[in-house]
Structures are given as structure tokens and as C-alpha cells.
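Continuing from the previous page...

OK, I double-checked the sequence for Nuclear pore complex protein Nup85 against my notes and this is the correct one:
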Amino acid sequence: MENNAKTFLIPNDLCRRAGMGASWRPMNEIVVFPYEKRSVKQKDQPTSFASNAPVSIFHIRRSVILFHPILRKLVNESNGVFLTLQASFKTKPSDLKMEILSISRQYRSIIRACLENLQDEVIKEVQEMTENGWFVSHFTDLLHHSGRLSSLEKEVEGFSADKLRESFILDYGTTLVGHKSLWQVGLSYLDHCPKDGLPTIQLLLPRISFDSEAKVHKLIREAISRGLKNVAQSICKVQGMRSLSRGRLGNALTWALKSQDGPFTSYLADKYLKQYISSGELNNTDLLDNLGSSMLASDRLIFLGKYNEFHKLYQEGEYKECGHLLIALMVSKIVPKFFWPVLLSEAIPLLESEEIVFSANDTFTVLHCLEEKEEIPELSDKISILRLAAARNLSRALMYEAQCENLV
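Thanks. Re-ran it with the corrected sequence; updated C-alpha cells here:
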């Protein structure tokens, strides 16, 4: 029988020729949709599979009776007993037999309580479906802890009680993780699979769907509590991309900082700067004011944070400090190429200020940067203004510095 067994890959070439495609989604779900392979050279014309019927995408998954509202009590209550059993055997109880008997009675009480609440139509549904691993997982776990499975290791070659128990618990936990409100219960089962539990959690956590930021924070906490920092960062980045697609730039930057993703953070910082070029205003200044050490995530974010500080100083009338910061930014080598016209333009009012803001050396720095960047098209109408303002400020600065030297 086994020699005649065949493996069919779905979707295969036959499916594709018939105009059908399929793809796996997270949590044992498969998506079936119309498909036709096209190449760049083919003409854009209606497919041979076109019909008057509307095109649909079907999500197919096996029925899980444990997800029925009435049987949710069975899942939640038995989870508490399961965790109690794992904890008690870590402390090595003195009377093993009595401990196992007590646990088994608790399981029986839970089953009895659930059966009393079942209605006739639900009983019919249960008869038509499997119990999705609840019984075999908990029963095997009881047998394992009672030592009954260990005796089979001597009788059956290649048999491992630990592997058998873990395979059932792993499958049951994975099933529960696929439910929108039982996923944390499922994680608690996977936590007690010594070999494959953590790698499975690492794969499943990023694939759990979330519809609110509260659930996102729960996912992140679960990942961090298990030492899965990379998973937490991945979830943060996905949330950041979602916020960006909704136009919530400040929220996207917050998630990017949590993800510690340098390239993504730089991308968002560029968004802020380009938005400033088009509108003349920096948005989410409260967030930028409180970046602190978080701005070290990327050079571009450092520039954005310091440029925001420059604006704040300018609004407060701290022109000297403002000028020092502007010069520091010019020589920092972290200025985006597209932002040089704006940065050099910011120097014009400071050069023409009644109070001497820039020293002679600072003025030479501005002229040097202007000479290096004068080929940028956006600077063409500002070059003459900048040179004139720099020349005036240079003469004033030299005279002032000479007078200061004579006084000394």
C-alpha cells in the first residue's frame, strides 16, 4: 500500500492549465483564485478563462470544532489544568499517583460541564467533525507524566515518549494559535514543547493577524518575554508600514524606532524632510522634540532631529546657538543631497541679521558649501543672494573680530 502512495502538489501544472491558482496563508489556510501565466511580450487581451461570472477568491480551511463558542470553555479550562500539571511535575510531587489522579478528575469535570451545555444541533456538528486533537493531546500528556509511555520505549524500537507527547501538544497548540482570541492559549502549549516549541512560535507570531494596536502590543510582549527580539522588531516594522500606508507619518516613525530598523527609519526621515520642502512646516514636532537617544537609529534621523532643534532655537530667538548648529550640520556630512538648497537658504536671514551671528570662519564654511553644491538646479536662483549676504557678513565679522583683538 505504501509503495503505491503518491504525492500531489497543489497547485500543480494541471491546475494552472485549468486556470486555477492557490497559495498558502498563515494558520493552515489555503487561498484559491483564478490564474493565467502571462509574459511581458504577450498582448493585453481577455484571458481564455474569462466568463460572465464574477471573479472570486476563496479561503479554504478545515473546520475546528474547538472554536465553537460553547466548546471554548473546554479549551480555556483545560489549559489551566494542563499548565498546573506541567508546573507540579517541575517540583517533582511526592505522591505521583495521587497527583495524576487529581489532574484526570479535573479533566473529567471540565468535559462533564461542557457536555451539559451542549445543545442538540451542536452535538450533531460534533458527531460530524473530529475533536481537533484536544483529547489525544491531554491524554498523551497524562500518560507521559505518569510514566506509562516510558515502558513502550523498551518494547518498541525507535519509539520516543518525549517525541510522541511533543508532536501532539505541538499540533494542538498550533491549531489554537490560528484563532483570533485563543492564540495566547495556544502559545502556552507550545511553550511546553522543549524541542520545536520556540521555533514554531518564532514562525507563527508574525503571522497572527491583528486588528488593533492593543493586540500588536500583546504580540510584542509575548515575543520579548520569550527572547524573540527579532520577531518583535519585525512586527513593529509591519505596523510601521501599515501606519505609513494610512498617511500617519508620526505613528509610522514611532513604530520604526521600536523596530530599530535603520533603513526604514531613514526612509521616514526623508519623508519628513520632503514634506517640509513642499509645505514649509515640520509635522509631529512633539515627537521630534523627544527623540533623545532614539535618533541614533540612523544618520538621517540624527539630521532630522538636529534640524528640528535648529527650528526651535530660531523661533525662540536664539540666533547665535542657531547659527552654530547650522554650521555644524553643514560640515557633518549627513545632509541629504536633496535638502542642501533648503539648508543653505536657512543661512540667508542669519547672514543678514543685525546681530553678527556667523564668524568669519563660519562665513567661509557657508561659501565653501555653496561652491561645492552650486551645480544643484534648485540653488541657481539663490546663489547670487547667498554670495552677496556672505560678503556683507564677512566684512562685518572681520571688522568686529579686528576690534576685539585691539581691545585685548
